[in-house]
Amino acid sequence: MDEDPYADFANQDTQPLPNFTPGPYNALDPATGNLLRKSLNLGSYNYLGFADDWNQTCKEDVVGALGKWGVSNGGCRVEYGTTDMHRELERLVADFLGKEDSLVLNMGFNTNATTIPALVSRGDLIVSDTLNHTSIVNGARASGAAIRTFKHNNAADLEDVLREAIVLGQPRTHRPWRKIIVMVEGIYSMEGEYCNLRMVRDVCKKYKVYLYLDEAHSIGAMGATGRGCCEYAGVDTADVDVLMGTFTKSFGGMGGYIAADAKTIAYLRTKCAGSVFHNSLSPIVCQQILTSFRVIMGLDGTDVGARKLRALRDNSNYMRMRLTDMGLHVLGNYDSPIMPVMLYNPTKIAAFSRECFKRGLAVVVVGFPAVPILMSRARLCISAGHTREDLDDALVKIEEVADICKIRYGWSSFG
Ligand code: PMP
After folding, report:
1. What is the pLDDT, as a whole number, of residue 368?
2. Where is this region: Disordered (predicted)?
3. What pLDDT, in 10s, does the model give residues 60-102?
4. Domain boundary at 239, 274, 297, which?
5. Which of 47, 133, 152, 219 to mutate to test the pocket of ligand 1 (most atoms within 8 A of CB)?
């Protein structure tokens, strides 16, 4: 018999990966590929620490749901993929945010990517912050609507773009666009900066355009009770037409939601691809979100949620203050758990990451094309699950690495 020409291809999973070089800086177990070094995680979105105390807070409910429902619903939302849990979660999200209804989908990315094309199309105009997330950009491009951008978080520039796009004072029906929708985020994930929401809201009201707010990084994490950027900025959720968010960051789950008036949500249920063509959110993930929501809202009868919110804010502000005092240039605002530490020079990216990892710190480093080439950075994500000892230990190590990489004030960034 002829030799099988595809034999190597079929067996490739038993071959070592090419260029796989376990070493001190990427200490992977060659047998399993697992990291050998235990590190303090400063790179994941685990804002409220549900990943750390999962056994105490969520496990019982989630395991119960697994026993009752299994792992998959085996259908999309409109074809038998909706359980009582999905509706319960949707009502909870709507109540939490003060909206009439909400729609829950199985992925945050797809929530933006599939609802935006259902909300706007050719003849409409999207006005988008230049630093909006790829999922918003994908949704906007797929919609067929015209897209204009405004300078990041700059309400004055937003106003200029809108003024140019419409003639101020004309009734809505005389505009060159059927619909205009402004798209912003609650906290910008590469900048650690929260949205200038009051001013953006004022401009949207003045020009009578819709406002869409992505709260992926702010829902559950910002505001006195975790209700996100609106609560934090003192903006009534009634002034934001579409609230979007994800469950990946603060809820220890995954999936996304859209909260809006009942008519918009009823329309999206049957018109948005995420609802019609995607399998629905797994029941166990649904349960994880429901349970963590109840903890955040205090519906479990404890103050664990309130303590988590306080710990996140305290940890974030402590870390930001100490990093800044150290002479590092940290982007973003106080109260934000995302801390981009500027490296500027792209040649420092690998060294910073490697030196942190050597010391048992897992950080995310970001370079071109995610950010402009001379705006390279390390992005730290702070969690309510970090203890003060964790953070103090990390600060000592970051100071050492900062000196090695010469990124403290007084050093030339290109030195
Ligand atoms: N929106 C924003 C602003 C994000 O940062 C992200 C992902 N980090 C998403 C949407 C997509 O969410 P998910 O990862 O839950 O799919």
Report:
1. 92
2. 1-21
3. 999 999 999 999 988 888 888 898 999 999 999 999 999 999 9
4. 297
5. 133
CA 303, chain centre distance (Å): 25
Range of the domain at 266: 71-297
Query: What atom of ligand 1 comes closest to residue 246's alpha carbon?
Result: 15
- What is the 265 CA–ligand 1 centroid distance (Å)? 20
Q: What is the pLDDT of residue 376?
A: 96
Can you give the pLDDT at residue 12? 43
Report, as an integer, the average pLDDT of 308-312.
Answer: 97
Q: What is the CA radius of gyration of the chain?
A: 23
251 vs 15 pLDDT, higher one: 251
CB 214 less than 6 A from any atom of ligand 1: yes
- Strand partners for 184: 213
Length of the chain: 415
Does residue 248 line the site of ligand 1, with CB under 6 A? yes
Ligand 1 centroid – CA 215 distance (Å): 9
Domain at 195, CATH number = 3.40.640.10
- 385 Cα: distance to centroid of ligand 1 (angstroms): 21
Query: At a CB cut-off of 8 Å and minimum separation 6, what does 400 contact?
Result: 355, 359
Cα 174 to averaged position of ligand 1 atoms, centre (Å)? 36
- Dump pLDDT digits (tens) for 243-267: 999 999 999 999 999 999 999 999 9
The reply to whether 61 falls in a domain is: no
Pairwise CA distance, residues 309 & 346, whole Å: 35
- Looking at residue 67, the DSSP 8-state letter turns out to be H
Residue type, 63: V
240: closest CA among 222, 264, 220?
264
Residue type, 190: M
ipTM over 0.85: yes
Strand partners, 279: 76
Let me know how many helices (H) and strands (E) the chain has, helices first.
15, 14
Give pTM, 2 decimals: 0.90
**Ligand 1: which of 246, 247, 250, 338 to mutate, most ligand atoms within 8 Å of CB?**
246
Residue ending a domain, among 274, 297, 320, is 297
Peptide bond into 369 cis (omega under 30): yes
